[in-house]
Amino acid sequence: MPLLTEDAKGVYIIAVTPFTDDGAVDWNGVDRMVDFYEEKGVTGLTILGLLGEAPKLTSEESRSIAKRVIDRVAGRLPVVVGVTAPGLAPMRELAESVMDMGASGVMVAPPWTTKTDDQAYAFYASVGDALGKTPWVLQDYPLTTNVTIAPKVIERIVRDVPTCVMLKHEDWPGLSKIGALRASSDKGEVRRISILCGNGGLFLPEEMARGADGAMTGFCYPEMMVGVVENYAKGDVQRAHDIFDAYLPLARYEQQQGIGLASRKYVLAKRGVISSAALRKPGGALSNADIADVERLLARQTKRLQEIGA
């Protein structure tokens, strides 16, 4: 499988991890999930992320899931694997393991103890040293990590660590960060790297307008992100926004802390992608009222998609 590069673009879906009702990994569900994402036109897969419930997996489960996914795509799509860990040694161990399996690259979030610009730079410089030649994604997700990384720090990392090939941008608000990074690369001040955006795609059209190359996030309808990115690439900005608008109410609902992932898994189960909507404990669950909300949103979404012919 080709390695991840600075030229990556499109939609790298953040995959869920399917579990059975009793919390075991649903291996057949992993296969169906991979097939579903490929059928919907995603460019690549990102597994073992925060919303893939990676912290709830054993190290052996993490490696086994990575192998199952990589084997299932059989080189047709690139696979990025989250390897964030409390220390560099387990991070390097998992990264080496999945790269040997055929992964295209890995993703790393900063530790919550990172407080200053120099600490952020030092951490990612050490990541570059630890991972050797493995290409990696800098995950910038302050809402979850509580670590804010300024554009100038990202630029410094990009200059000094050539294996950093992508920024997973999830700052909020963060459109100006994309603009600042693109301005620097346009001027030749720093190497241009891929920027794929998160936050469930809530700001994807605006992020594309600021210079993002696509999305690296999850949503129970990946075809929304595929449609937005493809139409922006063709220059049909109006169509991109029409597609986005049709899905926005459900995407907004899915971004709630606590039940957002439960909502995503509920819809994926309803679509037949996974057998169970269960999260591995500890995890949130939808109430009857929550389910009624989701069903109402789905009905309105269906109607709107029919109106715009999508």
From TrEMBL:
Keywords: Lyase. The keyword Lyase applies. Pyruvate binds at M216. GO terms for cellular component: cytosol. SMART domains: DHDPS. GO terms for molecular function: 4-hydroxy-tetrahydrodipicolinate synthase activity. Belongs to the DapA family. PANTHER family: 4-HYDROXY-2-OXOGLUTARATE ALDOLASE, MITOCHONDRIAL, DIHYDRODIPICOLINATE SYNTHASE. This is 4-hydroxy-tetrahydrodipicolinate synthase.
